[in-house]
């Protein structure tokens, strides 16, 4: 079980950033160094710098990202005007650009008063009462979610991450460890450790919206349910352990702030026999949330 937000997109095939070439090693070193520098900058400066460079790079070097985002917005919101679609495209790019720099500031956002947690007492009571499978989404700046949960005393375990490059993977892993997230083993023992976390009454976080090789796995958006990917894994674990699920996501709000939602514990339907029905049930929980926040969703430009 591994979180794999693969950033390969439709269009010209980019170089393999995980290949052990000298160029890639230098790029990995650059990404790690930039992260270390950004960690020491004022909290608003790093996102401002990263937004400008990232948006420019996407528009100039990866124009298919903009084209796909625009096409998917039109597909999901056919009633919108062209001007509104372009405003959402710009918001999508702005969100990605800021998130690149904000990663280094996670750990300082809560103390700076930038994180609003919806009904934190409910989240604490839920986590105290029962183990849960947290259905986490890539909206807003999802890394902020980990800082927020730690701030209210919740301990979370999550699958290790495999990003586009070794440098990016190192950065996110370091960030999550710094913010108290416990990572599962990156091998077959990861699933056993996840099951043990449930038996111990903990919080197992699974990022269930994902794309692989530019192809969207979840949400389904009208496609038949399938057992591939993290949504199927979450359904199987919840069913096998009779553990409720909780929806968990972040919304970017005004004044460079974030709203973190940790929902009610929801049980899978007791009379379901077909595993695909469980996948559909979980999809119906996450899909409306993503549709409402498309311009803040990382996988807006992926095919489905």
Summarize the structure.
Helix content is 47%, strand content 13%.
Topology:
Elements: H1 22-38, H2 45-61, H3 63-76, H4 82-102, E1 115-118, H5 120-129, E2 132-136, H6 143-151, E3 156-158, H7 166-178, E4 182-183, H8 189-199, E5 203-207, E6 210-212, E7 215-218, H9 229-241, E8 245-253, E9 257-262, H10 275-292
Parallel strand pairs: 1-9, 2-5, 2-8, 3-4, 3-5
Antiparallel strand pairs: 6-7, 8-9
Helix pairs in contact: 1-7, 2-3, 2-4, 3-4, 9-10
In words, what does this structure look like?
This protein has 304 residues and is an alpha/beta fold. It has one domain. It is 47% helix and 13% strand. It has 10 helices and 9 strands. It has helices at residues 22-38, 45-61, 63-76, 82-102, 120-129, 143-151, 166-178, 189-199, 229-241, 275-292; strands at residues 115-118, 132-136, 156-158, 182-183, 203-207, 210-212, 215-218, 245-253, 257-262. The strands form 2 sheets. It has a 7-stranded mixed sheet, with helices on both faces. Strand 8 and strand 9 (257-262) form a beta hairpin. Helix 2 (45-61) packs across helix 4 (82-102). The longest helix has 21 residues, at 82-102. The relative contact order is 0.17.
């Amino acid at each position: 079980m591994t979180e794999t937000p693969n950033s390969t997109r439709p269009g010209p095939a980019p170089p393999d950033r995980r290949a052990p070439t000298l160029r890639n090693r230098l790029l990995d070193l650059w990404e790690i160094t930039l992260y270390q520098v950004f960690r020491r900058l004022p909290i608003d400066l790093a996102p401002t710098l990263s937004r400008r460079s990232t948006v420019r790079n996407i528009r100039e070097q990866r124009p298919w990202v903009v084209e796909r985002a625009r096409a998917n917005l039109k597909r999901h919101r056919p009633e919108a005007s062209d001007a509104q679609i372009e405003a959402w495209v710009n918001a999508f790019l702005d969100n990605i650009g800021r998130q690149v720099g904000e990663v280094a500031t996670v750990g300082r956002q809560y103390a700076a008063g930038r994180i609003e947690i919806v009904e934190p007492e409910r989240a604490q009571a839920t986590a105290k009462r029962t183990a849960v499978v947290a259905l986490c989404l890539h909206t807003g700046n999802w890394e902020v979610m980990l800082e927020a949960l730690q701030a209210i005393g919740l301990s979370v375990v999550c699958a290790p991450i495999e990003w586009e490059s070794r440098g990016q993977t190192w950065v996110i892993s370091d960030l999550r460890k710094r913010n108290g997230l416990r990572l599962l083993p990156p091998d077959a023992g990861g699933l056993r450790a996840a099951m043990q976390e449930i038996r111990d009454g903990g919080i197992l976080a699974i990022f269930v919206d994902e794309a692989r090789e530019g192809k969207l796995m979840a949400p389904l958006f009208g496609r038949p349910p399938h057992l591939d990917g993290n949504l199927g894994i979450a359904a199987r674990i919840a069913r096998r352990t009779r553990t409720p699920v909780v929806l968990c996501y972040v919304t970017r709000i005004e004044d460079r702030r974030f709203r973190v939602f940790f929902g009610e514990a929801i049980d899978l339907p007791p009379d379901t026999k077909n595993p695909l029905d469980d996948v559909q049930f979980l999809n119906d929980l996450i899909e409306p949330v993503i549709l409402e926040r498309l311009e803040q969703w990382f996988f807006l430009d992926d095919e489905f």
